[in-house]
Design a protein that fits this description.
The chain is α+β, with helices and mostly antiparallel strands and 308 residues long. Helix content is 30%, strand content 25%. About 2% of the residues have low confidence.
């Protein structure tokens, strides 16, 4: 799983790694999942190599209102889209006008709330006589709003003429503390979307979680550890919202090696703590190995999973 946000010369670095992976006899995966995919994510040469290496590929936009970014999956076997539905991110069971007011509060100052729109996808495939369900998931990210709020707070406290270094440090501290607090709360757009995902999963009559092999993978935008959201060296404590999303699934990665932000990340993610927010949760699936690939070219590192 990788989000190929490419910047400058890093584009060539990432594309070289993708081409090497696709051409490797030992490492070529059965599935290559690209999140936040757009027509400009990879060049024509890389795309031709991927299409030669993977006989099948599918692509779906994140939602009908958010077409710019998509999930693209290259695969060695046919993938059949079995279910797709929009995941709301406003509180359920309240009047529609209050839901809309809630959305207005959380809308991104830059792109609007449509960037919060995501979908539940379930693909089915067969391999070696076994049936599997693949659920690529990218939940919304409200945490960047906290950094903007922190910047406004720091200006109010330190003033516009405050020393830039001090103000930037204060912004970073407030952003880390705000994020650490918010990811534990159950009154934010992320939680409501995660809740709607769990409802969609558990009500999906095409899956029997008691026996079916299910792979849930992607950028969940939630750290598995609360305290490492403040500082990576602090003791590991499992985040309650991470546990809620995972449910009865197994985390394919025992370690908490960060996947975000990468060293090539820039802009609003600067100053955020190193977090593991890209996850692979599995159900009735035997994990053999998992690794974080520290490739250049994306604000996330890729995750690589082996199992059956």
């Amino acid at each position: 799983m990788l989000e190929p946000r490419l910047r400058g010369t890093d584009q060539s670095s990432l594309e070289i790694n993708l081409r090497k992976l696709a051409s490797s006899i030992e490492l070529k995966p059965d599935f290559l999942i690209l999140g936040e995919f757009s027509p400009h994510s990879i060049g024509e040469k890389t795309q031709r190599i991927l299409e030669r290496s993977f006989p099948f590929w599918v692509e779906r936009p994140y939602s009908k209102t958010f077409q710019e970014f998509r999930v693209r999956i290259y695969s060695q076997v046919p993938l059949i889209l079995k279910k797709e539905l929009l995941l709301d991110w406003a509180p359920p069971y309240i009047p529609k006008e209050k839901q809309q007011a809630y959305r207005e509060v959380w809308k991104s100052p830059v792109s609007g709330g449509r960037r919060f729109d995501r979908s539940y996808f379930r693909f089915a495939f067969s391999m070696n006589g076994q049936e599997y369900h693949l659920l690529p998931l990218h939940l919304l990210c409200p945490w960047k709003k906290l950094k903007l709020d922190s910047a406004n707070t720091s200006r109010a406290i330190l003033g516009q003429s405050g020393q830039e270094t001090m103000r930037n440090g204060f912004v970073d501290l407030l952003a880390k503390l705000s994020t650490a607090i918010e990811v534990e709360r159950q009154d934010n757009p992320w939680f409501y979307q995660a809740k709607n995902f769990r409802i969609a999963l558990e009500s999906d009559d095409g899956i029997d979680l008691s026996k079916d092999k299910v792979i849930l993978i992607g950028d969940m935008n939630i750290p598995n550890s609360l305290l490492t959201a403040i500082h990576p060296e602090m003791d590991w404590v499992e985040n309650s919202n991470y546990k809620f999303l995972k449910g009865g699934f197994q985390d394919a990665f025992d370690e908490t090696e960060p996947t975000y932000p990468s060293k090539t990340a820039s802009g609003m993610v600067k100053g955020f703590p190193s977090l593991k927010i890209d996850h692979a949760f599995v159900n009735n699936f035997q994990v053999e190995a998992g690794e974080v690939l520290k490739w250049k070219g994306s604000d996330h590192y890729a995750i690589y999973l082996i199992g059956h």
